[in-house]
Amino acid sequence: LSLALYTGSLCVASSAAFLYHDYCVIGAGPSGLQAAYFLQQAGRDYVVFERSHAPGSFFALYPRHRKLISINKQYTGKCNSEFNLRHDWNSLLSHDHRLLFRHYSRDFFPNADAMVHYLEDFASLLKLQVQYNTAIIHVTLEKDEQAWNGHYFLLTDQDRHNYKCSSLLVATGMWVPNVVNFPGSEYVEGYETVSINPEDFAGQTVLILGRGNSAFETAENILGVTNFIHMVSRSRVRLSWATHYVGDLRAINNGLLDTYQLKSLDGLLEGDLEDLAIVKDKKGKLHITLRFYLENRNTSAGIDSITLPQDELDNFATRAPYDRVIRCLGWKFDFSIYNRSLRLMPGKGNKKKYPQIKPSYESRGTRGLFILGTASHSVDFRKSAGGFIHGFRYTTRAVHRLLENRHHGVPWPSTVYPITQLTNSIIKRVNEASGLYQMFSVLADIILLRENATAFEYLEEYPVGVLAELEMQTGRKAPNGLFVVIMEYGRNFSGADKDVFYYNRAVGEAQHAWQSNFLHPVIYYYKHLPTEREMKLRPPDWPLPRPDAVHHIVEDFLTDWTAPNAHILPLRRFLENCLSTDLRNFFAESCFFFAFTRQKLPPFCRQGYVGMQGLVGSEGLRRHAVEAGLLEDYTARDFSGDRTPDSHDGSQNQLLRDHAIPVRPLQHLVNAKDE
Question: What is the pTM of this model?
Answer without folding.
Answer: 0.86
